[in-house]
Amino acid sequence: MSVTSVKSSAVGPPVPQSVSAVKNIAISSENYKYLQQEIYRESGIVLDEDKHYLLESRLMPVARAAQMSSLDELCTRLRAKTSPGLARSVIEALTTNETLFFRDMAPFEALRLHMLPELLAKKPQKLAIWSAAASSGQEAYSIAMLIKEYGIGGCPVDILGTDLSEQILERAREAKYVQFEVNRGLPAAYLVKYFKREGLDWQLKADLRAMVKFKRFDLRQSMLGLGKFDIVFCRNVLIYFDVDTKVKILTQILSVLNPGGFLLLGGAETTLNLHDKFERIAVGSTVVYRKG
Fold it and tell me: Structurally, what CATH architecture does the domain formed by 106-291 represent?
C-alpha cells in the first residue's frame, strides 16, 4: 500500500507469541531476500533491509501454526510451492494494516464540510465512495456513520471497501469489534447509536453494515471493473510501494474518479512529483485532491 519501506508502526503491532514456539526466530539473509522478492511479487510492498524484526514477528505465528521449528524451515516449505495456503498466510500476515475508527479525523471533517456539500450541490443521482485499503472495515464504516449523521436524504450512497487480504475482509464483513477497537477514535455517542453489545464485543447494527460492500482487490490490477467513484479514500497505503507502482495506482484512481471527484491520501502521502492531474486543495488541517 521514494522507494518506501514497510514501517512497523504503520502496519500494526507485532502479535505477541511465545518465543519457545519457534526454536529459531532469526532468519538467514538468503531467506530474507527470498521473502522480500515474494512479498513484492505478490503484493507490490517494498520491504527494506532493516525490517528483520517486523518480518520475524509477523511470521512467528504462521510458523507456529504450521508446526515448524524455524522461520528458515518456513521458507524452505514456501520455496517448494506445495502449500498454497501457507503462502497466502504469509502474505496475509505481512499485508494486514493497522486501522481505527475516524483515523486522523481531519479527512472526515473535510468529507463533511467540503466534499459532500460540493458534490451534493450538483444534485447527483447517487454518490459512490471507495475505501481502497479497508482492512477490518473501520474506515468504511466511519464513512457510513458520517453519511448517516450528515443526513443526505434521498441521494443513495454506495460504499465499497477493498483490501488485498480476504481474511481481514471477513472481519470487516462481520463488523464485530472488541472494546479496545471501539475505544480507538469512535465517539461514545456513535458507539451507543450504531452498535449493540454482544458479550464482550460490539456489533455494528445491520443498517450500517448494509451500506458497505467489501471485495478483495489488488490495487495494482485494473480498476475499471470497480465502477466510477465520487470519492476515493486511499490512505496510508501508497507509502508501502515503489515510485512506479505509486504512479500506476494514482493514474488508475484518476481513471475511475468522476469529474470533480476527490481523492484522500494519508498524512505522509502526496501526489506531488508523482501525478500532475490532481488539483491540491487545503481543507482545514488536511489536503484533498480533486480531479479536474
Answer: 3-Layer(aba) Sandwich (3.40)
Question: In this predicted model, what pLDDT tens digit does every residue of 4-24 receive, in sequence order?
Answer: 334 433 444 444 443 334 444
**Residue 267, CA atoms < 13 Å, CB-side half-sphere:** 10
pLDDT of amino acid 96: 67
| Cell 504450521 found at | 66
Per-residue pLDDT band for 290 (boundaries 50, 70, 90) equals very high
Each domain of the chain, given as residue ranges in start order, spans 19-95, 106-291
**Under a CB-based contact definition with an 8 Å cutoff, are residues 241 and 44 in contact?**
yes
Residue 26 scores a pLDDT above 90: no
Predicted model pTM: 0.84
Strand partners, 176: 203
**Residue range 141-168, pLDDT digits in tens:** 999 999 999 988 789 999 999 999 898 9
19-95 CATH: 1.10.155
Residue whose entry in the numeric block shows the C-alpha cell 488541517: 285
49 or 231, which is more confident?
Answer: 231
Q: What's the Cα-to-Cα distance from 48 to each of 240, 249, 266, rounded to whole Å?
A: 10, 21, 20
**pLDDT-based confidence at 88, cuts 50/70/90?**
confident
Answer whether 19-95 and 106-291 agree in fold: no
